[in-house]
Design a protein that fits this description.
Helix content: 10-25%
Number of helices: 13
Distance between the termini: 26 Å
Largest sheet: 8 strands, antiparallel
Radius of gyration: 25 Å
Shape: globular
Structural class: alpha/beta
Number of strands: 33
Strand content: 25-35%
Length: about 600
C-alpha cells in the first residue's frame, strides 16, 4: 500500500466519541490520491480529468440551511404490527440496537428516534373494545399495547425513543365512542411526554371521501371532526401542542391549498404537521423500476411538490415532518424496494428534503413486507422471529452519519461529464418522460419529431433511447435517469462531510468514475489536509445482501450490531485551483462514499 493511503481499523463509535474520528473502508470502494495501487483496483491519477467535480465553500453559511435534527430518521409501523417490531413486552433489544446505531453517531444528550404507530390500521383500530366490537374496529388496542410502548422506552432509555400515536377519526363521528378511551388510557398510564411525543387524529384524511366517509365528505367536514376530536382529547388529558397535524398524503387541492390556514388556525395545538410521501407507487399492481426510484423525479421532483406546503406550515412556526413514507406506496415494489437501490435513493432523498425544510421522516413498514428497513421473519412457528436488516437501513445509517453532531448543509456544486456539460435534470433541454430532447426541437417526441431542427437524433424519443446517452454524463439529447450527486454537511465541531452518490444505472458494469472534491477556504475553516472515507457498497443495485457500510455488514446479525471490523482509508488532500483543498477519489459504479475532513 502506497504512502498516501492507509487502511485503518477503528472501534465502533460511542456517544462519548467524536463521530469525526470514525474511519471506514469497504471491500470494493477505493478512495485515493495520486497514483496508488490498492488491492486489485487501480486508483485515480491527477493526469486524468475528473468525471465528476464537486466544489464546496466550507465557510459559507447559507441562510436556508437548517440544523439537521439528530433524530431525523424514524420508523412508522402499523398499529397491528407494532408489537411484532418492539416485542410483546417492549423488549426487542435488536430493534433498540439498530436505533442506537443512529443515536450514537451524535455525541452528547439529544432527542432519540420517533416511532410512529399508525397508518391505514389507525382508522380501523379501537381502544379496549369487547369481543363484539363495533363495525369498522378490526384491531383491539388494549393496555398491553400501550404498556409495551412504555416498557420499550424504559428498557432502552439510553436512546430516548418516543412514540407518535395515530387515533381513529374515521369509524365514528363522536370521539367518545372509541378514540376517547385511547387518550384516557395514555393519561391513566402516565405516558405523556415520557413516552408519547405526539398524537395524530386520523390517517391520510384527504382520502376519506368515498372510502371511509361519504363521497361528499369535504375539507370543511374534516375541520369539523378534527376540532371535535381535538377538544375531546384535550379534555381527557392530552397536553397543548401535542398534535401531529394534517397527516395528508395525496395532492388533494382542497386540503393542500388550505394547509397554511389550517396551520395558523391550530398552531397553538400543533407539535408538528405531517405529510406522507412515497415517490413512486405499486398501488393497483402498478409496476415501477429501479430507474424510476433513482430518477430526479423521486428526489428533487418530490421537493418541487413539497416546498410550497413546507413554506405554508413554517410560516406559522410549526415544523414539517414526513410522518410516513418510503420508496413505493402500497407495500413497496419487489425487486426495487427490497434492494440496494433504496440505499442509494435514501442517501440522496433525505438530504434533499432536509434542505427544503423537512425536519424528520418516519419510514413505514414492518415487521413483514417488502419495503421496511428493519423486518422480523416469523415464518418458523414457535421460533423467535429472525431479524432482517434490509438494504434501506444502510442508506439511513449513512445519512445519519453524514449529518451527525448538529450539522448544517453547505452549498455544493456538482459538474458532470468530462467537460462539465452533463444535464442530469434536463435543465437545458426539453423534457418528456424519461427523454431529454435538444432545446432546438421545440417539442420533445411525438408525430413529426424527425422533421424538427436536429432531426430524429435530437427530437425523437425512440431514437434518443436507442442511443443510450445518459443525461448524467451528456447534454441533450439524452435519457433522464439517476446521476452522480453530492451533499455536504458541516458539523458543529467544524468537521466537513461530503457524500457522493452514483445513481446512474447506465454505469452498471463500467469502471469507476474519477471524482474530485475541492473545498474552498479550507484554511479559514481550519480543516486538516487529510481525510477519511466511509464507503457504501453492494454487489449490484439488485442486491439484498452483501451490502457493506464502513466495511461492515448486518448480514446474519441477530442483535442489531454490525458484523466485522470497521475499516478506513486515510487520504491526503492536494492544493487545488484558487487555493482550494482537493481530494481525488475513485467512485465505483452505483456506490456511494462519504469523505470526512476533520478540523485541526
Amino acid at each position: 500500500i502506497g504512502s498516501h493511503v492507509n487502511i485503518l481499523h477503528t472501534p465502533r463509535i460511542s456517544k462519548r466519541q467524536s463521530a469525526s474520528a470514525m474511519l471506514s473502508g469497504a471491500r470494493t470502494a477505493v478512495l485515493c490520491l495520486s497514483a496508488v495501487l490498492f488491492a486489485t483496483a487501480v486508483c485515480c491519477t491527477n493526469a486524468r480529468k475528473a468525471d465528476v467535480q464537486v466544489n464546496v465553500d466550507v465557510t459559507s453559511d447559507p441562510s436556508w440551511a437548517p440544523t439537521v435534527y439528530p433524530n431525523f430518521v424514524g420508523l412508522s409501523i402499523e398499529i397491528s404490527g407494532a408489537l411484532g417490531m418492539i416485542g410483546d413486552s417492549g423488549n426487542r433489544s435488536s430493534l433498540a440496537q439498530l436505533l442506537r446505531n443512529f443515536y450514537d453517531l451524535t455525541v452528547g444528550d439529544h432527542d432519540g428516534p420517533r416511532l410512529r404507530i399508525g397508518g391505514n390500521s389507525a382508522d380501523e383500530s379501537c381502544y379496549d373494545e369487547p369481543s363484539s366490537s363495533p363495525a369498522g374496529c378490526h384491531y383491539n388496542i388494549t393496555d398491553k399495547d400501550l404498556l409495551a410502548y412504555k416498557h420499550f422506552v424504559a428498557n432502552y432509555a439510553d436512546i430516548k425513543p418516543r412514540f407518535v400515536l395515530d387515533t381513529n377519526l374515521a369509524t365514528f363521528d363522536d370521539p367518545a365512542t372509541v378514540a376517547q378511551g385511547h387518550i384516557q388510557a395514555v393519561t391513566r398510564l402516565d405516558m405523556w411526554d415520557s413516552v408519547v411525543a405526539a398524537v395524530e387524529i386520523g390517517n391520510e384524511v384527504d382520502l376519506f371521501a368515498g372510502r371511509l366517509k361519504p363521497a361528499s365528505w369535504s375539507y370543511n367536514d374534516y375541520i369539523t371532526s378534527f376540532s371535535a376530536f381535538l377538544k375531546n382529547f384535550r379534555a381527557h388529558g392530552m397536553p397543548a401542542k401535542w398534535v401531529q397535524g394534517a397527516t395528508y398524503c395525496c395532492k388533494k387541492p382542497s386540503f393542500d391549498d388550505a394547509l397554511g390556514d389550517y396551520t395558523r388556525q391550530y398552531r397553538d395545538e400543533l407539535a408538528t404537521v405531517s405529510y406522507h410521501r412515497y415517490p413512486i407507487s405499486h398501488c393497483n399492481g402498478h409496476t415501477v423500476t429501479q430507474a424510476d426510484l433513482l430518477a430526479p423525479s423521486s428526489t428533487t421532483g418530490q421537493v418541487r411538490f413539497l416546498e410550497p406546503l413546507i413554506q405554508a406550515v413554517n410560516a406559522s412556526g410549526v415544523p414539517f415532518w414526513i410522518g410516513e413514507g418510503n420508496s413505493a406506496s402500497c407495500g413497496g415494489m419487489p425487486g426495487v424496494s427490497d434492494t440496494f437501490t433504496t440505499a442509494l435513493w435514501s442517501l440522496d432523498f433525505l438530504p434533499t428534503i432536509s434542505k427544503a425544510g423537512v425536519v424528520g421522516m418516519n419510514f413505514h413498514g414492518g415487521p413483514r413486507g417488502t419495503y421496511p428497513p428493519i423486518a422480523y421473519n416469523d415464518s418458523v412457528p414457535g421460533a423467535e422471529p429472525r431479524l432482517e436488516v434490509r438494504p434501506l437501513y444502510y442508506g439511513l445509517l449513512a445519512f445519519s452519519e453524514l449529518v451527525a453532531n448538529g450539522s448544517k448543509w453547505l452549498d455544493t456544486h456538482v459538474s458532470l461529464g468530462a467537460n462539465g456539460t452533463a444535464d442530469p435534470s434536463c435543465a437545458h433541454g426539453i423534457e418528456s418522460g424519461q427523454t431529454c430532447c435538444a432545446a432546438s426541437c421545440g417539442t420533445c417526441g411525438g408525430t413529426g419529431c424527425n422533421d424538427r431542427p436536429g432531426g430524429s437524433s435530437d427530437c425523437c424519443a425512440g431514437t434518443i433511447a436507442q442511443a443510450n446517452r445518459s443525461c448524467g454524463l451528456y447534454p441533450a439529447p439524452c435519457t433522464i435517469g439517476g446521476s452522480t450527486v453530492a451533499h455536504t454537511a458541516k458539523a458543529n465541531d467544524g468537521t466537513v462531510r461530503v457524500a457522493v452518490i452514483d445513481k446512474d444505472l447506465s454505469h452498471a458494469g463500467a469502471g469507476p468514475s474519477v471524482v474530485s472534491v475541492c473545498l474552498a477556504n479550507a484554511d479559514s475553516a481550519r480543516l486538516q489536509n487529510r481525510g477519511t472515507v466511509l464507503a457504501l457498497t453492494s454487489p449490484s443495485t439488485s442486491s439484498k445482501t452483501g451490502i457493506r457500510y464502513a466495511g461492515q455488514t448486518f448480514d446474519g446479525s441477530l442483535d442489531g450490531k454490525p458484523i466485522g471490523a470497521r475499516r478506513g482509508i486515510a487520504v491526503n488532500g492536494r492544493p487545488g485551483p484558487n487555493k482550494t483543498l482537493c481530494f481525488d477519489l475513485s467512485l465505483p459504479a452505483l456506490t456511494a462514499v462519504t469523505l470526512v475532513v476533520p478540523t485541526l
